[in-house]
Amino acid sequence: MTSKSYLGEQTMDNLKILIVEDDPVTLKLIEKRLMKVGYKVETAKSGVEAVDLVSTRFFDVVVTDLMLPGGVDGIDTLEAIKAKWPETEVILITAHATVDSAVEAMKKGAVDYLQKPINFDELILRLQRISTLKSLAKDANDFREAMNVTEKSAAKTIQDLEIMVSELQQSCLSAKNLLSDQDIEINERVRKAIEVLSSRLPNLLETSKA
């Protein structure tokens, strides 16, 4: 099985992708190829339309042509996207003559660029890589959140144990003082000491179970 057929048959993660391309044929071709492998795809025919879309909606990835009409080119689109959604990844599509501009765009936050004519296998591989990195980032964030919860829980447990030890020490001291009180008959001292310890014991046991 060739690499091309393998990529064509895989089902991709459900990344939300916006394609920005002024050429309707190229736009439709990219849309169909990405939808075929399972991506959620929307399109924009200009930078103006793309900026309008991302102003209210989040996309995991934006694939945009560098050269766009209407006064808002790929660089402008990139900057608008990153200003609104820093976590959105942007891939630029460029002709050979504008590779230097694409490299400059990467310094402004683009994750990658592809030259025309588009190699769709290469595009899908790069989207797979983005998906993997986003998944790893999410797992790391989930782990950090779990660790924060665990640390808070541990801190609360330690605090409860400190309170329990303090109460136990106080109960033992009270019982010791009662047992040492020579003014009280020995049987009464024992009874009262047991009573003091017993009155605190349920609370201590409840704290230890929490």
List descriptors.
Rossmann fold, 2 domains, alpha/beta, 210 residues
User: What general outline do the C-alpha atoms trace?
Assistant: rod-shaped
CATH superfamily name of the largest domain? Response regulator
* Beta-strand content bin: 5-15%
Distance between the termini: 59 Å
Total of domains = 2
Low-confidence regions: 1-12
Biggest sheet: strands, sense, closure?
5 strands, parallel
**In the CATH classification, which architecture of the largest domain applies?**
3-Layer(aba) Sandwich
Q: For the CA atoms, what is the radius of gyration? A: 33 Å
CATH topology of the largest domain: Rossmann fold
- Helical stretch tally: 7
Q: Estimate the mean pLDDT confidence.
A: 81
Number of beta-strand segments: 5
Helix percent reads 55-70%
Neighbour order of strands in the largest sheet? 2-1-3-4-5
Report the top-level CATH class of the largest domain.
Alpha Beta
How would you classify the helix and strand content by structural class?
Answer: alpha/beta
Describe this structure in words.
- The protein is an alpha/beta fold.
- The protein is built from seven helices and five strands; from the N terminus they run H-E-H-E-H-E-H-E-H-E-H-H.
- It has helices at 3-9, 24-36, 47-54, 74-84, 99-107, 120-180, 186-209, and strands at 16-20, 40-44, 61-65, 89-94, 112-115.
- A five-stranded parallel sheet has the order 2-1-3-4-5, sandwiched between helices.
- Helix 3 packs parallel to helix 4 and helix 6 (120-180) runs antiparallel to helix 7 (186-209).
- The two termini are 59 Å apart.
